[in-house]
Amino acid sequence: MSRTVGVAVSGATRAMSTSGNKINAGELFVGSDLSKRYAQFRPKLPVEHVNTIVELLGRKPGVWVDVGCGPGTSTQQIVGHADKIIGVDISETQVEVAKQTHQHPSLSFEQGTCDKLPVEDCSVDVVTAVQAAHYFDLPAFFKEVDRVLKPGGIVGLVSINTPKCMDSTTMDTARNCVSDLITKYGLPDKVKLLQDNYKNLEVPYPTRKDHMVDILTSWSLDDYLDVIMTFSPVNNMIKRKSMTVIEGRVHVTTLLREEGMTEQDMNSVYTWSQQCAMVTASKP
Question: Could you tell me if residue 72 is left (phi over 0), alpha (psi between -120 and 50 degrees) or otherwise beta?
């Protein structure tokens, strides 16, 4: 398991879509095994971004909705910063894991889609989506955000980039291998949005601000494989090749060894960095 040396990494973020989208996120992210792997290995929302949203709002939020919450690890980060927190996800298994894992009087989880949130008009102070918005039908999502947000409410969209090793150029080989898999098996428009830290993601409000936090973590290459095995393009590869998760991991390991990764490379611990970008805007 990883050892955090900077902003904590051990959470989950997930995506949702609507019936009008080309991708069926309900199928892409379904399954209790995948949900548990998301909860264990995916990065969570940095508290710095949570604090930034509260500062922008200017008060403690009454209601905060986290869309595409997955198994709820990022949603859990909001506890204590809002009176009522609702995590929403399209996947029933993700919601089940979230309910089992994260329990707090202010926290609840519901199954739903990004274009039909289970809240009333003008009733929400903050809407967030962590590592999820690139899978949304964005026009439908922003229409729904505009419906549920109070005037002055904040929308915050967070992207977390592919981990980069900070203290070994040898590990660039691993990152390049993963980048090739993402390019080959990911959806190009969605991958591009994510890789560009949402810089080209258009928001409907004129008050856009961009924020950045670096997440630093100590991982071996084996830990790194645990993380990338939760990536959507990698899971797409597994499905397309009719592999099990274990077979998929063996396949990726083989690719790395073919690129010259040694046993020592696999077992040594390195410092990895992930850029965690956030786009915020406030409803007029």
Answer: left
